[in-house]
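Please, structure for the following, as tokens.
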Amino acid sequence: MVPLLYMGAFFERHKNEYYDALQGGRERGDIQQWLRYFLRGVTVQANDADRRSERLADLAEEFRQRLGGSRSRAHELIDSLLAGPMISTQHVRDQLQVTSTGATNLLRQLEGAGIVRPMARVPGRSNRWVAYEVMRAMSEETPEAG
């Protein structure tokens, strides 16, 4: 699961300011410079987390609409996909207490709705599926504001 408030991304994008703020605190005792920098980062990352959360909520609604009025348990997997875009038949079996065939059928239903796609099979491992739209929503860069 990807954290929504990830400060490292801000620090990486503003590396020079990060080092300047640290040095200011260490060499001159200028803790205010560090606090301003850090709080600006919290603001930027919180705004980014808000945008990502909205995109994920919209995606969840879209997935539910794609599944339509289906009475299958595929709807129950949407939240799992939002928490982490990769899912295995083993995970579905364990989460929903269904057989391997039942888990595969649910994942194929999600595939038919364009929600997941199967990954290449790895011998000796459970089949894996990925929700690429969720992966993009979690990882794409958003414009910085704050």
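The mean pLDDT is 88. The chain has seven helices and three strands.
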